[in-house]
């Protein structure tokens, strides 16, 4: 009798379970489906994600051997500004753009550019599509502001692609699954989307002085209308529409929000220097710190101070490892490997001299007296700083055979010497 009761109870339990098996439906709390992106907090988080993805342009590393550090050099090599100082370095990212015999269809820099841009585009499309979702209940002004920021990044990414590749696939809706039938769109169609996106952005984004602030009153490094006008001007120049480019620039110039820095300011105003150099000193770069000349300051925090301050920390072997700003590594010289030279903050820390300034920049670009050519902005001279070295305090003689002028003692821009004591 007791066994029969147990069996009946078990059957009842199984029946109840079979009718209420929806508890098996998994709810993901650490991943967002684009169709579920329908509140202002989530949409703003997605916009911050776009900024993070854009910042990878400046922080891409490619572990474990940091080969991706050469990514930034690819955009300077072959121009009037810089060249690969030592092709024998065999930088797998930079060298193909010095020696085209090494440029293949699987070039990592070209591949990364494509992925970087379309990742921004697809996530922008997800945000824009979410705003049209009936579940998204926001005031129209709030929707337009969010759409303006998403379209700013989409327009920027497409303008980058068209500048580099010409005709590319035009995608304006989110792609959530595999797709292999993309075709290149006509340039007229691509250019129209770029202009439409950037005009919408400059119309609906706040001005630089009205960007949102955090609880401490510090302005966020978010997109504003002048940024959209600047990228729009660049797009018009590419299209050969110089009059429209000039008009877009005039909007920024005549706004009254920006001005050339012509007076000393900031944390080292009482030390030797000049106004141009002041803008690139750590602690002076942001608008809140007195920099009224820069239109777009991409704010990045040291992760030892702010968790995730430089973007994602992705594991080695992934396609988009984001580390920390790479400009100093690329532009800075390896002075610290020259005998008699030690690492120091006044020289910008540890550079690795992947690229170097051309003779044209060093000897022909600037007129006499041009502040941008001062010793505070272009370093041509080095002085032995190792107190144990016999020539301590003396100027490094570049004609000395023992001095390496290929990678170690080379002229460099000081723009990226913004030394962070926590770095």
From TrEMBL:
Any single Pfam family the record assigns to this protein: SusD-like_3
Alphabetical list of Gene3D superfamilies matching this protein: 1.25.40.390
Protein name: RagB/SusD family nutrient uptake outer membrane protein
Organism the protein comes from: Flavobacterium gawalongense
Domain of life of the source: Bacteria
Domain SusD-like N-terminal intervals: 22-231
